Amino acid sequence: MFRKSLEQLSHSDFKELLSGRKCLLYGANGYTGTLVARKAHALGLTPILAGRQEQFIVPLATELGCSYRIFNILKAEEACEQLNDVDVLINCAGPFPQDTTAIIQSCLANTVHYLDINGDLATLVNVQRFHTKAQETGVVLCPGVGFDVIPTDCIAATLKHALPDAVSLSLGFEVHGKLSPGSVKTLYNVVANGCQIRQNGLLTPVPFGYHMRHFDEKQSEKMVTAIPWGDLASAYFSTQIPNIECLYPIDPEHLPWLKRLRWFRGLLKLPWLKKLAYLLISSRFQTPTPIERQQSATYFWGEVKNSSGLVKRASLKAADGYDLTVAGVLLALQFLLNYAGDGGYFTPSQLMGRNCVESLPNTSNIRITTHSLS
What we know:
Pfam families: Sacchrp_dh_NADP (PF03435). This is Saccharopine dehydrogenase NADP-binding domain-containing protein. It comes from Zooshikella harenae. This protein has helices at about 10-20, 30-40, 55-65, 75-80, 100-110, 120-130, 130-135, 150-160, 180-195, 230-240, 255-265, 270-285, 290-295, 320-335, 350, and strands at about 25, 50, 70, 90, 115, 140, 170-175, 195-200, 200-205, 215, 220-225, 245-250, 295-305, 310-320, 345, 365-370. It is of the alpha/beta class. The strands form 3 sheets. Strands 3-2-1-4-5-6-15 form a 7-stranded parallel sheet, with helices on both faces. Strands 10-11-12-7-13-14-16 form a 7-stranded mixed sheet. The protein is globular. The mean pLDDT is about 85.
């Protein structure tokens, strides 16, 4: 599947792959974007660093010896002009807007492959709308090449392969570590947009606190509940399983508060309140340190069922979510620089294979077990 795993790549490998081609990293001044830029530099890459604010981009570009560009990627005219000589765009800006139309149209107009670290449901759905146009232009659109989409997408595809007639899919993850301000802002938007599941192939609104259940992971039962995560899009595109839910562990004591969200979440969309919330988040949340990331881990699991009651489960353990994202971005970039296939919209497992997550550093293999409801 891969010429080399990410851990095996050397300085010269990436230089050889990128020879004569340009990669632009947008949002390089953000927490994750900076991590990607530094890791790329360590591997011998000199991507073009880009963002909206020169005072944040220039110091990093100077330090790493990279060129830079300042523009607003949401303005189609600016984006088209700045991408006209680029081969691959890596979008690390966040929180992501739900409407990424201008970004994708700019990539299609300039025949630029597109990667991002987004995990937002509405954004993943919006990018997939351009599948046919991407096929026509030979452009690869692959959003979600980081936490949590790469692991959950690979689990979903692996479970579908193990149980082809599956009619339902549950996916879950658990984070042991700190969140950056950008990640907390993304969570704010998730809550404001409300909870959903996928029923009979369609995204269906449900109240927060919907479908509480216990999930037995390594003989340790956890109370979990549905969350409106991007896997409702990516896992569906990968597997076509009609009924999907995304789950996250919750302390039962917090359940009453969670259920109350249905009454006031609409207020969270008010522009002035959102702006205030963003300011508070930026002031109160600190980015995790390298040591904190090294000491953190993420856990992922999935479960499929068929109409006969057969159940298969899968799980894996991975590195801290930020380190996983950095590795995922560079793995996808490596793959695209070697890619000679058709254009279109791809999930990570569709583009790189259902086991691609196992190529990431500090990630276990996907473990599958078989169960029965009867």
